[in-house]
Amino acid sequence: MKTYTYTEAAPSLNRLLKRDEGENTEIRETVLAIIDGVKARGDAALFDYTEKFDGCRLDSLAVTPEEIEEAFTAVGPEMIAIMEEAAQNIRSFHEKQLETTWTYSPGPGITLGQHITALERVGLYVPGGKAAYPSTVLMDSIPAIVAGVDSLVMVTPPGADGKINPNILAAAKIAGVTEILKVGGAQAIAALAFGTESVKPVNKIVGPGNIFVATAKKEVFGVVDIDMIAGPSEVLILADGNANPVFAAADLLSQAEHDEMAMPILVTTSRAFGEAVEAEITRQIDADLSRKDIARKSVRDYGFIFVCENLDQAFELSNAIAPEHMEILLPDAMDYLDRVRNAGAIFLGSYTPEPLGDYFAGPNHTLPTSGTAKFSSPLGVYDFTKRSSILSYSEAALKKDYQKIAAFARSEGLDAHAKSVERRFE
Protein backbone atom coordinates (compact mmCIF):
# COMPACT_ATOMS: atom_id res chain seq x y z
CA MET A 1 0.00 0.00 0.00
CA LYS A 2 1.13 3.55 -0.67
CA THR A 3 1.40 5.80 2.38
CA TYR A 4 0.96 9.59 2.35
CA THR A 5 0.53 12.23 5.00
CA TYR A 6 -2.47 14.53 4.87
CA THR A 7 -0.22 17.37 3.69
CA GLU A 8 1.10 15.26 0.83
CA ALA A 9 -2.29 13.83 -0.17
CA ALA A 10 -4.74 16.72 0.09
CA PRO A 11 -3.47 18.88 -2.80
CA SER A 12 -3.18 15.97 -5.25
CA LEU A 13 -5.95 13.62 -4.16
CA ASN A 14 -7.67 13.34 -7.56
CA ARG A 15 -4.40 12.43 -9.25
CA LEU A 16 -3.51 9.86 -6.60
CA LEU A 17 -6.88 8.11 -6.75
CA LYS A 18 -7.32 8.15 -10.52
CA ARG A 19 -7.60 4.65 -11.89
CA ASP A 20 -6.17 3.96 -15.32
CA GLU A 21 -9.14 2.19 -16.89
CA GLY A 22 -7.62 2.33 -20.34
CA GLU A 23 -8.81 3.57 -23.70
CA ASN A 24 -12.26 2.17 -24.50
CA THR A 25 -12.84 3.48 -28.02
CA GLU A 26 -12.73 -0.06 -29.40
CA ILE A 27 -15.11 -1.28 -26.71
CA ARG A 28 -17.58 1.49 -27.53
CA GLU A 29 -17.44 0.66 -31.24
CA THR A 30 -18.06 -3.01 -30.46
CA VAL A 31 -20.99 -2.14 -28.22
CA LEU A 32 -22.55 0.19 -30.79
CA ALA A 33 -22.32 -2.57 -33.40
CA ILE A 34 -24.04 -5.00 -31.02
CA ILE A 35 -26.80 -2.51 -30.26
CA ASP A 36 -27.37 -1.89 -33.97
CA GLY A 37 -27.44 -5.65 -34.55
CA VAL A 38 -30.12 -6.18 -31.93
CA LYS A 39 -32.20 -3.26 -33.23
CA ALA A 40 -32.02 -4.63 -36.78
CA ARG A 41 -32.35 -8.39 -36.18
CA GLY A 42 -34.11 -8.77 -32.83
CA ASP A 43 -34.13 -12.25 -31.32
CA ALA A 44 -31.94 -13.67 -34.08
CA ALA A 45 -29.14 -11.32 -33.01
CA LEU A 46 -29.58 -12.32 -29.35
CA PHE A 47 -29.24 -16.02 -30.21
CA ASP A 48 -26.17 -15.37 -32.37
CA TYR A 49 -24.44 -13.16 -29.79
CA THR A 50 -25.17 -15.69 -27.04
CA GLU A 51 -23.54 -18.41 -29.12
CA LYS A 52 -20.57 -16.16 -29.91
CA PHE A 53 -19.90 -14.76 -26.43
CA ASP A 54 -21.32 -17.40 -24.06
CA GLY A 55 -20.56 -20.51 -26.09
CA CYS A 56 -24.06 -21.98 -26.23
CA ARG A 57 -26.82 -22.15 -28.81
CA LEU A 58 -30.23 -21.68 -27.21
CA ASP A 59 -33.65 -22.78 -28.44
CA SER A 60 -35.43 -20.28 -26.21
CA LEU A 61 -34.42 -17.20 -24.23
CA ALA A 62 -36.93 -17.75 -21.44
CA VAL A 63 -36.10 -19.55 -18.21
CA THR A 64 -38.89 -22.04 -17.51
CA PRO A 65 -40.67 -22.52 -14.17
CA GLU A 66 -39.21 -26.03 -14.13
CA GLU A 67 -35.68 -24.64 -14.32
CA ILE A 68 -36.41 -22.28 -11.44
CA GLU A 69 -37.75 -25.10 -9.26
CA GLU A 70 -34.78 -27.30 -10.16
CA ALA A 71 -32.38 -24.51 -9.11
CA PHE A 72 -34.32 -23.92 -5.88
CA THR A 73 -33.90 -27.57 -4.97
CA ALA A 74 -30.22 -27.63 -5.95
CA VAL A 75 -29.33 -24.68 -3.72
CA GLY A 76 -30.59 -26.52 -0.65
CA PRO A 77 -32.62 -25.53 2.40
CA GLU A 78 -29.82 -23.93 4.45
CA MET A 79 -28.84 -21.38 1.81
CA ILE A 80 -32.49 -20.80 0.89
CA ALA A 81 -33.26 -19.94 4.52
CA ILE A 82 -30.35 -17.47 4.63
CA MET A 83 -31.45 -15.78 1.41
CA GLU A 84 -35.05 -15.60 2.61
CA GLU A 85 -33.98 -13.90 5.84
CA ALA A 86 -31.77 -11.48 3.92
CA ALA A 87 -34.66 -10.75 1.54
CA GLN A 88 -36.94 -9.93 4.46
CA ASN A 89 -34.32 -7.58 5.92
CA ILE A 90 -33.96 -5.84 2.55
CA ARG A 91 -37.74 -5.61 2.15
CA SER A 92 -38.26 -4.15 5.64
CA PHE A 93 -35.59 -1.50 5.10
CA HIS A 94 -36.87 -0.41 1.70
CA GLU A 95 -40.49 -0.22 2.84
CA LYS A 96 -39.35 2.72 4.99
CA GLN A 97 -38.45 4.58 1.77
CA LEU A 98 -41.95 4.53 0.29
CA GLU A 99 -43.34 7.92 -0.64
CA THR A 100 -47.02 8.70 -1.07
CA THR A 101 -48.94 11.30 -3.06
CA TRP A 102 -49.44 14.51 -1.10
CA THR A 103 -51.37 17.76 -1.56
CA TYR A 104 -51.84 21.03 0.29
CA SER A 105 -53.91 24.17 -0.10
CA PRO A 106 -51.98 27.47 0.06
CA GLY A 107 -55.18 29.48 -0.38
CA PRO A 108 -58.93 29.27 -1.15
CA GLY A 109 -59.67 27.31 -4.33
CA ILE A 110 -56.04 26.15 -4.78
CA THR A 111 -54.69 22.60 -4.49
CA LEU A 112 -51.02 21.83 -5.15
CA GLY A 113 -49.05 18.69 -4.59
CA GLN A 114 -47.05 15.76 -5.89
CA HIS A 115 -48.36 12.52 -7.38
CA ILE A 116 -46.13 9.46 -6.85
CA THR A 117 -46.34 6.64 -9.40
CA ALA A 118 -44.19 3.57 -9.95
CA LEU A 119 -42.40 2.84 -13.20
CA GLU A 120 -44.32 0.45 -15.43
CA ARG A 121 -41.51 -1.91 -16.47
CA VAL A 122 -37.93 -2.36 -15.27
CA GLY A 123 -35.05 -4.51 -16.51
CA LEU A 124 -32.66 -6.09 -14.00
CA TYR A 125 -29.20 -7.01 -15.26
CA VAL A 126 -27.47 -9.70 -13.20
CA PRO A 127 -23.90 -10.82 -14.02
CA GLY A 128 -23.39 -14.52 -14.60
CA GLY A 129 -20.54 -16.98 -14.81
CA LYS A 130 -17.80 -16.52 -12.19
CA ALA A 131 -19.34 -13.21 -11.08
CA ALA A 132 -22.70 -14.70 -10.11
CA TYR A 133 -24.14 -12.64 -7.27
CA PRO A 134 -27.54 -13.70 -5.89
CA SER A 135 -27.26 -10.78 -3.45
CA THR A 136 -27.53 -8.43 -6.44
CA VAL A 137 -30.78 -10.11 -7.47
CA LEU A 138 -32.27 -9.37 -4.06
CA MET A 139 -30.88 -5.83 -3.80
CA ASP A 140 -32.01 -4.75 -7.27
CA SER A 141 -35.42 -6.43 -7.46
CA ILE A 142 -36.91 -6.02 -3.99
CA PRO A 143 -36.91 -2.17 -4.00
CA ALA A 144 -38.63 -2.24 -7.40
CA ILE A 145 -41.29 -4.63 -6.10
CA VAL A 146 -41.78 -2.53 -2.96
CA ALA A 147 -42.14 0.55 -5.16
CA GLY A 148 -44.99 -1.13 -7.05
CA VAL A 149 -43.34 -1.60 -10.46
CA ASP A 150 -45.85 -3.41 -12.70
CA SER A 151 -43.44 -5.83 -14.34
CA LEU A 152 -39.81 -6.87 -13.89
CA VAL A 153 -37.65 -8.78 -16.32
CA MET A 154 -34.30 -10.17 -15.25
CA VAL A 155 -31.58 -10.82 -17.81
CA THR A 156 -28.47 -12.84 -17.06
CA PRO A 157 -25.99 -14.68 -19.30
CA PRO A 158 -26.15 -18.49 -19.46
CA GLY A 159 -23.20 -20.80 -19.02
CA ALA A 160 -21.82 -22.92 -21.82
CA ASP A 161 -24.38 -25.57 -20.86
CA GLY A 162 -27.22 -23.11 -21.47
CA LYS A 163 -28.15 -22.96 -17.80
CA ILE A 164 -28.28 -20.11 -15.28
CA ASN A 165 -26.41 -20.24 -11.98
CA PRO A 166 -28.88 -21.89 -9.55
CA ASN A 167 -28.19 -19.35 -6.77
CA ILE A 168 -29.34 -16.56 -9.09
CA LEU A 169 -32.56 -18.37 -9.98
CA ALA A 170 -33.25 -19.21 -6.35
CA ALA A 171 -32.77 -15.57 -5.33
CA ALA A 172 -35.11 -14.48 -8.12
CA LYS A 173 -37.82 -16.86 -6.89
CA ILE A 174 -37.39 -15.60 -3.31
CA ALA A 175 -37.59 -11.97 -4.45
CA GLY A 176 -40.64 -12.59 -6.63
CA VAL A 177 -39.11 -12.20 -10.11
CA THR A 178 -40.77 -14.58 -12.57
CA GLU A 179 -39.72 -13.27 -16.00
CA ILE A 180 -36.10 -14.30 -16.55
CA LEU A 181 -34.21 -14.36 -19.85
CA LYS A 182 -30.97 -16.12 -20.76
CA VAL A 183 -29.10 -13.26 -22.31
CA GLY A 184 -26.25 -11.08 -21.13
CA GLY A 185 -23.72 -8.52 -22.26
CA ALA A 186 -24.37 -5.45 -24.36
CA GLN A 187 -26.94 -7.41 -26.35
CA ALA A 188 -29.12 -7.80 -23.26
CA ILE A 189 -29.00 -4.08 -22.56
CA ALA A 190 -29.96 -3.34 -26.18
CA ALA A 191 -32.88 -5.78 -25.99
CA LEU A 192 -34.17 -4.20 -22.79
CA ALA A 193 -33.91 -0.69 -24.24
CA PHE A 194 -35.32 -1.28 -27.73
CA GLY A 195 -37.22 -4.55 -27.46
CA THR A 196 -37.23 -7.66 -29.67
CA GLU A 197 -39.81 -10.27 -30.58
CA SER A 198 -39.34 -11.90 -27.15
CA VAL A 199 -38.35 -8.91 -25.04
CA LYS A 200 -40.79 -6.15 -24.24
CA PRO A 201 -38.84 -2.88 -23.79
CA VAL A 202 -38.44 -1.40 -20.33
CA ASN A 203 -38.44 2.10 -18.84
CA LYS A 204 -35.31 1.65 -16.74
CA ILE A 205 -32.31 -0.70 -16.51
CA VAL A 206 -30.53 -1.40 -13.24
CA GLY A 207 -27.72 -3.69 -12.22
CA PRO A 208 -23.94 -4.03 -12.54
CA GLY A 209 -21.95 -5.63 -15.33
CA ASN A 210 -18.60 -5.67 -17.08
CA ILE A 211 -17.21 -2.85 -19.21
CA PHE A 212 -19.35 -3.89 -22.20
CA VAL A 213 -22.53 -3.77 -20.11
CA ALA A 214 -21.56 -0.44 -18.53
CA THR A 215 -20.79 1.04 -21.95
CA ALA A 216 -24.09 -0.22 -23.36
CA LYS A 217 -25.96 1.37 -20.45
CA LYS A 218 -24.30 4.69 -21.25
CA GLU A 219 -25.32 4.40 -24.89
CA VAL A 220 -29.00 3.62 -24.25
CA PHE A 221 -29.44 6.24 -21.53
CA GLY A 222 -32.05 8.68 -22.75
CA VAL A 223 -34.01 5.97 -24.50
CA VAL A 224 -34.39 4.45 -21.03
CA ASP A 225 -33.24 5.51 -17.60
CA ILE A 226 -30.38 3.70 -15.85
CA ASP A 227 -29.38 3.43 -12.22
CA MET A 228 -25.69 4.38 -12.43
CA ILE A 229 -22.41 3.50 -14.10
CA ALA A 230 -20.65 1.48 -11.42
CA GLY A 231 -16.87 1.54 -11.26
CA PRO A 232 -14.57 -0.82 -9.35
CA SER A 233 -15.45 -1.25 -5.68
CA GLU A 234 -13.86 0.77 -2.89
CA VAL A 235 -13.84 0.90 0.90
CA LEU A 236 -12.46 3.59 3.18
CA ILE A 237 -11.75 2.84 6.82
CA LEU A 238 -11.35 5.79 9.18
CA ALA A 239 -9.65 4.85 12.43
CA ASP A 240 -7.47 6.12 15.23
CA GLY A 241 -4.69 4.17 16.90
CA ASN A 242 -7.07 2.26 19.18
CA ALA A 243 -8.82 0.22 16.47
CA ASN A 244 -8.11 -3.45 15.87
CA PRO A 245 -5.67 -3.83 12.93
CA VAL A 246 -6.88 -7.39 12.29
CA PHE A 247 -10.43 -6.14 11.74
CA ALA A 248 -9.28 -3.24 9.57
CA ALA A 249 -7.10 -5.46 7.39
CA ALA A 250 -9.86 -8.03 6.93
CA ASP A 251 -12.35 -5.35 5.92
CA LEU A 252 -9.96 -3.75 3.44
CA LEU A 253 -9.35 -7.16 1.87
CA SER A 254 -13.09 -7.82 1.62
CA GLN A 255 -13.12 -5.22 -1.15
CA ALA A 256 -9.67 -5.93 -2.56
CA GLU A 257 -10.72 -9.46 -3.52
CA HIS A 258 -13.51 -8.11 -5.77
CA ASP A 259 -11.31 -6.79 -8.54
CA GLU A 260 -7.69 -5.98 -9.35
CA MET A 261 -8.85 -2.34 -9.61
CA ALA A 262 -10.73 -2.27 -6.30
CA MET A 263 -9.50 0.44 -3.96
CA PRO A 264 -8.87 -0.26 -0.24
CA ILE A 265 -8.14 2.96 1.68
CA LEU A 266 -7.15 3.51 5.31
CA VAL A 267 -7.39 7.01 6.78
CA THR A 268 -5.86 7.10 10.25
CA THR A 269 -4.46 9.44 12.86
CA SER A 270 -1.75 6.92 13.77
CA ARG A 271 1.17 5.99 11.53
CA ALA A 272 1.92 3.01 13.77
CA PHE A 273 -1.63 1.74 13.28
CA GLY A 274 -1.25 2.11 9.52
CA GLU A 275 1.93 0.06 9.59
CA ALA A 276 0.24 -2.62 11.72
CA VAL A 277 -2.69 -2.82 9.28
CA GLU A 278 -0.37 -3.12 6.28
CA ALA A 279 1.56 -5.94 7.94
CA GLU A 280 -1.70 -7.69 8.82
CA ILE A 281 -2.94 -7.39 5.23
CA THR A 282 0.17 -9.16 3.99
CA ARG A 283 -0.27 -11.89 6.60
CA GLN A 284 -3.96 -12.44 5.80
CA ILE A 285 -3.40 -12.55 2.03
CA ASP A 286 -0.69 -15.19 2.39
CA ALA A 287 -2.58 -17.17 5.04
CA ASP A 288 -6.01 -18.02 3.73
CA LEU A 289 -7.41 -16.01 0.81
CA SER A 290 -8.63 -17.98 -2.20
CA ARG A 291 -8.50 -14.86 -4.41
CA LYS A 292 -5.10 -13.79 -3.12
CA ASP A 293 -3.70 -12.82 -6.53
CA ILE A 294 -6.57 -10.40 -7.14
CA ALA A 295 -6.39 -8.99 -3.60
CA ARG A 296 -2.62 -8.60 -3.72
CA LYS A 297 -2.77 -6.64 -6.99
CA SER A 298 -5.57 -4.42 -5.71
CA VAL A 299 -3.63 -3.61 -2.53
CA ARG A 300 -0.39 -3.03 -4.42
CA ASP A 301 -1.77 -0.83 -7.19
CA TYR A 302 -4.75 0.92 -5.59
CA GLY A 303 -4.29 0.56 -1.83
CA PHE A 304 -3.64 3.74 0.19
CA ILE A 305 -2.85 4.71 3.76
CA PHE A 306 -3.39 8.38 4.57
CA VAL A 307 -1.90 9.52 7.87
CA CYS A 308 -3.60 12.58 9.34
CA GLU A 309 -2.68 14.75 12.31
CA ASN A 310 -6.20 14.72 13.77
CA LEU A 311 -9.77 13.62 13.10
CA ASP A 312 -10.63 16.95 11.48
CA GLN A 313 -8.14 16.21 8.71
CA ALA A 314 -9.31 12.58 8.53
CA PHE A 315 -12.95 13.49 7.94
CA GLU A 316 -12.01 16.25 5.50
CA LEU A 317 -10.01 13.76 3.45
CA SER A 318 -12.76 11.15 3.60
CA ASN A 319 -15.39 13.60 2.38
CA ALA A 320 -13.12 14.62 -0.48
CA ILE A 321 -12.72 10.96 -1.49
CA ALA A 322 -16.50 10.25 -1.17
CA PRO A 323 -16.09 6.48 -0.86
CA GLU A 324 -18.57 3.83 -1.88
CA HIS A 325 -18.27 2.16 1.54
CA MET A 326 -17.04 3.97 4.65
CA GLU A 327 -16.25 2.29 7.96
CA ILE A 328 -15.74 4.40 11.09
CA LEU A 329 -13.67 2.37 13.55
CA LEU A 330 -13.77 4.86 16.39
CA PRO A 331 -15.17 4.60 19.94
CA ASP A 332 -18.78 5.81 19.98
CA ALA A 333 -18.74 5.86 16.17
CA MET A 334 -22.35 7.10 15.95
CA ASP A 335 -21.22 10.41 17.48
CA TYR A 336 -19.27 11.12 14.28
CA LEU A 337 -22.11 10.54 11.81
CA ASP A 338 -22.78 14.24 11.25
CA ARG A 339 -19.19 14.71 10.14
CA VAL A 340 -19.75 12.45 7.11
CA ARG A 341 -20.92 14.44 4.10
CA ASN A 342 -20.06 12.12 1.21
CA ALA A 343 -20.30 8.31 1.35
CA GLY A 344 -22.43 5.66 -0.31
CA ALA A 345 -22.93 3.61 2.87
CA ILE A 346 -21.64 4.33 6.37
CA PHE A 347 -20.69 1.46 8.68
CA LEU A 348 -20.43 2.54 12.31
CA GLY A 349 -18.29 0.70 14.83
CA SER A 350 -15.93 -2.27 14.93
CA TYR A 351 -18.71 -4.84 14.64
CA THR A 352 -20.33 -3.42 11.53
CA PRO A 353 -18.09 -4.80 8.76
CA GLU A 354 -18.78 -3.94 5.13
CA PRO A 355 -19.96 -7.47 4.12
CA LEU A 356 -22.88 -7.01 6.53
CA GLY A 357 -24.20 -4.45 4.05
CA ASP A 358 -23.33 -6.54 1.02
CA TYR A 359 -25.52 -9.43 2.03
CA PHE A 360 -27.76 -9.20 5.02
CA ALA A 361 -28.56 -6.06 7.00
CA GLY A 362 -31.09 -4.53 4.59
CA PRO A 363 -29.72 -1.24 3.17
CA ASN A 364 -28.93 -1.51 -0.53
CA HIS A 365 -25.47 -2.57 -1.64
CA THR A 366 -25.78 -0.95 -5.08
CA LEU A 367 -23.83 2.19 -4.24
CA PRO A 368 -22.20 5.17 -5.97
CA THR A 369 -18.50 4.62 -6.75
CA SER A 370 -15.52 6.66 -7.93
CA GLY A 371 -16.44 9.77 -5.93
CA THR A 372 -20.00 9.98 -7.25
CA ALA A 373 -21.30 9.77 -3.67
CA LYS A 374 -20.79 13.54 -3.73
CA PHE A 375 -23.99 13.81 -5.77
CA SER A 376 -25.75 10.44 -5.88
CA SER A 377 -27.30 7.88 -3.55
CA PRO A 378 -27.65 4.12 -3.06
CA LEU A 379 -30.25 2.31 -5.15
CA GLY A 380 -33.62 2.56 -3.45
CA VAL A 381 -37.38 2.56 -3.84
CA TYR A 382 -37.15 6.17 -5.03
CA ASP A 383 -35.27 4.93 -8.13
CA PHE A 384 -38.36 3.03 -9.24
CA THR A 385 -40.89 5.81 -8.82
CA LYS A 386 -41.49 9.14 -10.51
CA ARG A 387 -43.18 12.32 -9.41
CA SER A 388 -45.83 14.37 -11.19
CA SER A 389 -46.79 17.84 -10.02
CA ILE A 390 -50.45 18.47 -9.12
CA LEU A 391 -52.10 21.86 -9.80
CA SER A 392 -55.75 22.80 -9.36
CA TYR A 393 -57.13 26.41 -9.30
CA SER A 394 -60.73 27.45 -9.05
CA GLU A 395 -62.03 30.31 -11.24
CA ALA A 396 -61.86 32.71 -8.30
CA ALA A 397 -58.31 31.69 -7.42
CA LEU A 398 -57.06 32.18 -10.98
CA LYS A 399 -58.89 35.52 -11.31
CA LYS A 400 -56.95 36.79 -8.29
CA ASP A 401 -53.57 36.12 -9.97
CA TYR A 402 -54.08 35.99 -13.76
CA GLN A 403 -52.87 39.53 -14.46
CA LYS A 404 -49.59 38.82 -12.64
CA ILE A 405 -49.14 35.63 -14.68
CA ALA A 406 -49.82 37.49 -17.93
CA ALA A 407 -47.31 40.20 -17.00
CA PHE A 408 -44.68 37.59 -16.18
CA ALA A 409 -45.28 35.83 -19.52
CA ARG A 410 -44.96 39.07 -21.51
CA SER A 411 -41.68 39.84 -19.71
CA GLU A 412 -40.35 36.72 -21.43
CA GLY A 413 -41.88 37.67 -24.78
CA LEU A 414 -44.45 34.87 -24.67
CA ASP A 415 -47.69 36.56 -25.69
CA ALA A 416 -49.67 33.35 -26.17
CA HIS A 417 -48.90 32.35 -22.60
CA ALA A 418 -50.33 35.67 -21.41
CA LYS A 419 -53.45 35.35 -23.56
CA SER A 420 -54.01 31.79 -22.29
CA VAL A 421 -54.91 33.15 -18.87
CA GLU A 422 -56.41 36.49 -20.04
CA ARG A 423 -58.98 34.92 -22.40
CA ARG A 424 -60.66 33.20 -19.45
CA PHE A 425 -61.70 36.59 -18.08
CA GLU A 426 -62.48 38.57 -21.25
From TrEMBL:
Cofactor binding annotation: Binds 1 zinc ion per subunit.
Binding-site list for NAD(+): 125, 187, 210
Catalysis performed (reactions): L-histidinol + 2 NAD(+) + H2O = L-histidine + 2 NADH + 3 H(+)
Keywords: Amino-acid biosynthesis, Histidine biosynthesis, Metal-binding, NAD, Oxidoreductase, Zinc
Biological pathway: Amino-acid biosynthesis; L-histidine biosynthesis; L-histidine from 5-phospho-alpha-D-ribose 1-diphosphate: step 9/9
The family this protein is said to belong to: Belongs to the histidinol dehydrogenase family.
Classification via PANTHER family: HISTIDINE BIOSYNTHESIS TRIFUNCTIONAL PROTEIN, HISTIDINOL DEHYDROGENASE HDH
Protein purpose: Catalyzes the sequential NAD-dependent oxidations of L-histidinol to L-histidinaldehyde and then to L-histidine.
Name of this chain's protein: Histidinol dehydrogenase
Organism name: Eubacterium aggregans
